[in-house]
Amino acid sequence: MIEPGVINVLKPPGMTSHDVVDLIRNIYKTKKVGHTGTLDPAATGVLPLCLGRATKLAQYITGSDKTYRAEITLGIATDTQDAAGEITSTKDASNITKEQFEKIMTSFRGEIDQLPPMASAIKIGGKKLYELQRQGKEIDRSLRKVYIYETKMVWSTGWGTRHPRALFDVTCSKGTYIRTICHDIGRKIGTGAHMSFLLRTSVGRFKINESRTLEELQQSENPAELIESMDYALEEYPEIQVKSQAVKSITSGAKLYPPGVLQQPDEIKPGQLVRLKAKSTLLALAVTIHEQLPQPRLVYKPVCILKIN
Questions:
Q1: Which letter, b or e, does each residue of 62-74 get, where b requires 16 or more Cβ atoms within 10 Å of its Cβ?
Q2: Which of 19, 22, 40, 79 is catalytic?
Q3: CATH 2.30.130.10 correct for 238-305
Q4: In 3D, which of 266, 198, 150 has the Cα closest to residue 38?
Q5: Which of 57, 82, 192, 285 suits a disulfide with 77, CB 3.0-4.6 Å?
Q6: CA nearest 196: which of 70, 14, 105?
Q7: Within a 10 A sphere around the Cβ of 181, how many other Cβ atoms?
Q8: What does DSSP say about strands 193-203 and 44-51: parallel, antiparallel, or unpaired?
Q9: Strands 193-203 and 66-74
Q10: What is the model's pTM?
Q11: Domain 5-64+204-232 carries which CATH code?
Q12: Please, where in the chain does CATH 3.30.2350.10 lie?
């Protein structure tokens, strides 16, 4: 039986995220593999996969901030907002300058409203949006608030031609659709646009320069050595050291009260997720609660038990 943990896979283009999951199941001889958020088949980059008991962590890794490198092509809009879709409009973008593009691109920083694309896996009324789109349907979707921390131009070409292209980096919150950013930039600039390439460069602490190709994993004599621990995967969350006498109650799901805390950081806020550890052993992921009675105090409620008694 493999140790629970996370594999930082470099997803190649042309495969679905589920294809990658199936391949990892074969490599590690386990059915218990879960991804932490899909990448479109044409996209490539970081795809952390949880193995064994670590599948419990998927939602907490999914919630991490992400970074992408995307290419936008101006003057061509598609029904999927990326290169895989049918062209819906073509306009001459030769009058758009690099400076105009950069100004509009940077206007998308901060908290923005996004309308999820029809070509997405979001479920409404039990149906995935992309399934409805394939049936020729378009339904009303609610705007979602996402946060764009940074946008940065990397490279561009073709200014003064009908369809200039630009490569840019984005750091954003979970749930952000990069192709929708490209679509919305095109709409704001007046020419239409689509995302012509996407590379995910990080998910939380999982970086592309540390990712493993499928070939590496298949050819490894001991692929288990390439699994990162659950503690590593959650390192972005503050660490709370607990006393030995509190371990059993924590792993049974009970709250951790101040008498059971051995050490904790100074700046802990209510609602914050933290790691509960006994020395080097990860016990649980917990949420911080500020209780008022019998006296004001911070307590930790386990939301994901990671150590089996």
A1: bbbebbbbbbbbb
A2: 40
A3: yes
A4: 198
A5: 192
A6: 70
A7: 26
A8: parallel
A9: antiparallel
A10: 0.89
A11: 3.30.2350.10
A12: 5-64+204-232, 67-199
